[in-house]
Amino acid sequence: MSGRQKLWINAEIYTPQGVLKQGRMLVGADGKIEAVGGQEVQADDGVPIHDAKGLKIIPGLIDVHVHGGNGFSFMDGTEESLEEMSKFHAMHGTTSFLATTSTASDDKLVKALQCAVSVSRTGLSGAEMLGVHFEGPFINAKRRGAQSLQDIRLPNVSAMERYWKASEGLIRLITLAPEVEGGMEAVKWFAGLGVTVSIGHSDATYEQVVQAVELGASHTTHHFNGMSPLHHREPGVAGAGLMLPELTTELIVDGIHVHPSVVKLLFETKGPHKVCMITDAVFCAGLPDGEYESVYVTNGEVYLKDGSSLAGSSLTTIRALRNVIRYTGLPLEKVLPSMTEVPAKEIKVYDRKGSLDPGKDADFLLVDDQLEIHATYVAGKEVYRRMN
Questions:
Q1: Which of 203, 280, 361, 363 is labelled catalytic?
Q2: pLDDT, tens digit, for every residue of 263-275?
Q3: Which of 81, 94, 140, 145 is the most buried if burial means most Cβ atoms within 10 Å?
Q4: Phi-psi category of residue 50: left, alpha or beta, with phi > 0 → left and psi -120 to 50 → alpha
Q5: What does the alpha-carbon distance between residue 242 and residue 266 come to, in Å, rounded to a whole number?
Q6: What is the mean predicted confidence (pLDDT) over 298-327?
Q7: CB atoms within 10 A of CB 262
């Protein structure tokens, strides 16, 4: 709750209808946007007026694939870790997110899911947790990347029911490999519950991806990474994601996981409304280079200690936004949907998130021309402000 109405003036406001110069935005006491426009947007006498002084107001960035940050991980299974993740990522542009699991023991996964349920009732002081992205354990060992080999399991109904029950319906997105035994049944089972099914850590053929799409899969996980690559005789998951219009492709735009020229290729091939930018940030995002538990960080790149694989990223949403503009040459208004509208639609919250429209949550960022964040707002409440 924001406590009372607030009127923002003198802002460059990015809306689905276009960019408003000298725009105004009225936020209600309930933390919802009441009006966006020009001089016609007025407030009652006594309502606080906030002068944006020409800064941009953009929709808050939504991250549907984030494991941790600033030394904390969702898989810690504690409310403190989710709170610290929430505060850290709010500082860097995220206003809402899906807490993302990794392949682990049954007990550890259930503990993390139960923690998410608890937090969903109490809330967080930074970015809002919208639910859970359940990444693994139903994946293909061949494409596991940094996922735990010993904890990979085949999907079966009893396991799926156990995780679904533990989450109390908070699983909004699941990553799985449809080609493994029981995989197609899992696609159908989760899609039937309204969960967005993503193909990832998968060695599926093009034909198997087509079958999974027919059963309800609509998303790919960190596209090009952890999947069968594009080959001219076997397009694999990577090729299927490029070609099938039903699939929205996740993308880590850190310049490490995907070459900048391939980022440009994906945007040109799929279009911004079929690319869902993510961070895949892990616990060491925001920490200095060095060795941490099973990984080491060098120049911001996160690797398993044995050097066999990248192990997530140290990316933030605002840095991803800056990167994609640089890599693609597209203007801010063209790429914004990939981190606002698209993720909101993918996890079925676009009725309240993902754009600066009346009736939606007042989740927004105040940024300058260099996309440096001056302040972050969640439901009309300031959760971060840059120190001058």
A1: 280
A2: 999 999 999 999 9
A3: 94
A4: beta
A5: 7
A6: 94
A7: 15
